[in-house]
Specification:
Strand content: 5-15%
Strand order of the largest sheet: 2-1-3
Order of helices and strands: HEEEHHHHHHH
Largest sheet: 3 strands, antiparallel
Helix content: 40-55%
Structural class: mainly alpha
Number of strands: 3
CATH architecture of the largest domain: Orthogonal Bundle
CATH topology of the largest domain: Lysozyme
Number of helices: 8
Radius of gyration: 17 Å
Length: 195
């Protein structure tokens, strides 16, 4: 299995993977897990360099949101009573402002909507920035109302409402979600401080 892990890392490197660094591990069931940041101690760096103080995010260079996108997020978030800085933080962490972002799990667009969530919120084209933002921000508003907590709303955005409820209205003990919530909150705090 280690050979296939190394082979995959080399393949990704040869394809000029967008992430600057790739981490991974193989679990006890033989399933390979990969990330562009070190989720927990099991993840080992497979390629790229360690994040440095010069690079604020393990996901690569952090850039300012495009002005048009910022304006759209501010407008749509305002319509739904969501802090635009929170919505923008979700967009940054989910897609790094890429409207064409696609996850291996099937999430699409700026706010990485899963197909069922897109359908639930009437998003006909999840790769259309406005359509995706409208659905994603409405979903975020509903989660904020349902859980009454930014942290739990973010956990539900990442892991699903059911996961938060099954874990006693707490952040589920999933490595991805445990890393996701503080990353979004950190970006939210930074974006709130910017004019």
């Amino acid at each position: 299995m280690r050979l296939s892990l190394v082979s995959l890392a080399l393949l990704l490197a040869s394809l000029h993977c967008a992430a600057n660094t790739l981490y991974g591990f193989v679990d006890e069931s033989g399933v390979a897990h990969f990330s562009d940041f070190k989720v927990d101690g099991r993840y080992k760096r497979l390629m790229g360099s360690e994040p440095s103080a010069q690079r604020p995010s393990a996901r690569g260079t952090r850039q300012a949101p495009p002005p048009r996108l910022r304006a759209r997020v501010e407008s749509i978030a305002g319509e739904h009573g969501v802090d635009p800085a929170l919505a923008m933080a979700v967009v940054e962490v989910e897609s790094a402002y890429r409207p064409d972002a696609r996850s291996p799990k099937g999430a699409l667009g700026l706010m990485q909507l899963m197909p069922a969530t897109a359908q639930r919120y009437g998003v006909s084209d999840p790769l259309d920035p406005d359509d995706n933002l409208r659905g994603g921000i409405r979903y975020l508003r509903d989660l904020l109302d349902q859980f009454g907590s930014t942290e739990l709303a973010l956990a539900a955005y990442n892991a699903g409402e059911g996961a938060v409820m099954r874990h006693g209205y707490a952040i589920p003990p999933y490595a991805e979600t445990q890393a996701y919530v503080p990353r979004v909150l950190q970006r939210y705090g930074s974006l709130q401080r910017k004019p």
